[in-house]
Amino acid sequence: MSASQILTLYLILFALEYLWETFLTWLNMRHVRAHAEAPPEAFREVVDSETYRKSVDYTLTRGRFGIIRNTASSLFLLFIILSGTLGRMDVLIAQWPLHSYLHGIVYIFTLSLMFSLFNLPFTLYSIFVIEERFGFNKMTWKLFIIDGLKSLVLSLVLLAPLFWGLFWFMDKTGNYWWLYAFGFLAGFQLLMVYLYPTVVAPWFNKFTPLPDGSLKEKILHLVQKVHFHTSGIFVMDGSKRSKHSNAYFTGLGRVKRIVLFDTLVDNLEEDQVVSVLAHEIGHEKKHHIKKGLALSLASMLAGLWILSLLLHYPSFFQAFGFSGPSYHAAIILFGFCSGPFTFFLTPLGSILSRKYEYEADRFAVEAMGTAHGLIGALLKLSKDNLSNLTPHPLYSFYYYSHPTLAERIAAMEDYEKRLNGQQKQAVAMG
User: Fold this and answer.
1) What 3-state DSSP class applies to 202?
2) Strands 257-261 and 247-250, bridge-based pairing
3) Please, which of 55, 123, 173, 333 could form a disulfide with 177 given CB 3.0 to 4.6 Å?
4) Does residue 408 fall inside a structural domain?
């Protein structure tokens, strides 16, 4: 294919991705408006009319803002590509007396900084206007600036050596450089899995061991019951940035930690917190984290192989304004093209993720002996977070990594009935 044909194909796929995602957002907003009068019948005993109207307003506000932000970002990206900025910036940096690897690193960081600065007003508006309006934001301007500086330093410390190593493998290890580079990047990714809980995360948040008390005793009882090993249970000061709640596991092996947002501990009953943890433990016990890591590594290997092929097609680089192939240009263009060329695969990842969520829910029901705690926690979190209770089916199918709340509750209640039936049958046969 010629350079003009490649660019035309990219623009067509880019437009299709933008139009499809915008259509889905519009469809979801239209569906939410159509059901804005009262909460769905299944939630009327839990969600009052005022809270429901606020959740509708929150969903519509975020939807409108998302369309505006996506439109602006898409136009900016098209401007960068069609104006020849990519190639001119490469020529400009080439005039500096830099090693070729450093040239590539400077190019990537400069382009990333340009996009970050462009998106900064949208990020600020999202945090300090939308989230503030709906009572979620706890971020201060000082903390926002400090977080930004820390992220910048972290990027320089971690990514600069990473790109240098990647360029070295691309340059020195022959036609199969992508295999060597994969080993290097996979090792780095696994290293970060171990370092993140104890080195990276504490740089942004304070992690305090869960104090002794009934909640800790219940969690330890659950951990022992399901034979789960952890290096500790910690409470994270998530409330200093947002009122949203969460819980998660981080790390592997000996550095595996249970992390609870302080907002989760403060807003839920103890049995509900334990049920949420049972769900998270279910992800680990069902090997979802390891499967996700394996899938990530497989995707990385495929991506590096594709990069190795692109380096042999000068017309691909010329289509986007570069004079010819280069390592840093290949990485940038791969990032630009990965979305438009693969957006139709998005539902596959969503389907797999929802499958994992159902499995983790079933594990939690088995571990707790009831679905009551987890259902109560999900209803409380949904209410507090102003979650959309009426997403359009096509929108949730395409985007949602979790089943809708109604789907999760129905599935857990059905599973609990089946478990109780099996237990009664076992007692009768015994």
Assistant:
1) helix
2) antiparallel
3) 173
4) no
Report the chain (430 residues): mean pLDDT per 10 consecutive residues: 91 96 96 91 86 95 96 96 94 92 95 95 96 91 93 92 94 93 93 84 88 89 87 85 80 73 89 92 89 91 92 92 92 90 91 96 94 93 91 95 93 90 71
Q: Is 151 part of a structural domain of the chain?
A: yes
Catalytic residue, chosen from 17, 280, 384, 416, is 280
Could you confirm whether 217 is annotated as catalytic? Answer: no
Residue 285 placed within a domain: no
Active site residue 132: no
Is 405 part of a structural domain of the chain? no
DSSP string, 15-84: HHHHHHHHHHHHHHHHHHHHT-SS--GGGTTTS-HHHHHHHHHHHHHHHHHHHHHHHHHHHHHHHHHHTT
In three-state form (DSSP H/G/I as H, E/B as E, the rest C), the secondary structure along 349-373 is: HHHHHHHHHHHHHHHHHHHHCCCHH
Domain containing residue 175? 3-201+290-347
